[in-house]
Amino acid sequence: MMMTDNNASDHLHSELILRPVGVVRSKLKEPSLTAGEDDLESDHDMEGVMKDARKIRGMLSEIVIDSRFDGILDGLEHFSHIMVLYWPHRVPDEKRGLIKVHPMGRKDFPLVGVFATCSPVRPNPILITAVELVERRSNTLKVRGLEAVDGSPVLDIKPYNPHYYFVDDVRVAEWMKRAIQEKTRK
Prior knowledge:
Elements: H1 8-12, E1 22-25, E2 33-35, E3 40-42, H2 46-58, E4 60-65, E5 81-86, E6 100-101, E7 112-113, E8 127-137, E9 140-144, E10 153-159, H3 174-184
Antiparallel strand pairs: 1-4, 1-10, 2-3, 4-9, 5-8, 5-10, 6-7, 8-9
């Protein structure tokens, strides 16, 4: 069903309040990408970015859920992977105005709209990633492959269900195909 609303712009000016349910504890202390004046910036060259991506894929982190949500994780330990939604808190408010970026800060990729990327620099920096759930201890989850910086607020967690998230005939941009190929090379 398509919603039509002549006053749709009124909804764009309302405020949402998100309350974190937990926090990330990670060895990652600095984001790999930052917002420059008019584009993303990376401290690494292309090879360094790919090396970091491979390192993060194997890195262990913890997600500590606030004690006020006692019992909210019950049953999650039966899943091998989870989806983590988090807020990249190291992106300053004034840097969230970028509309177009070079994906991953790479000038060899085309300039595209921020919504065509997974960049943390976006109007509402809500990021999502699928990670391996290694262990659950009370209100703490040990996960592998979480790219969130230490201290990132966790907004939500969902079990990964390959049948629910499965999509046939996926198409991705040519630059993303290239990035995936580079990331998977050993």
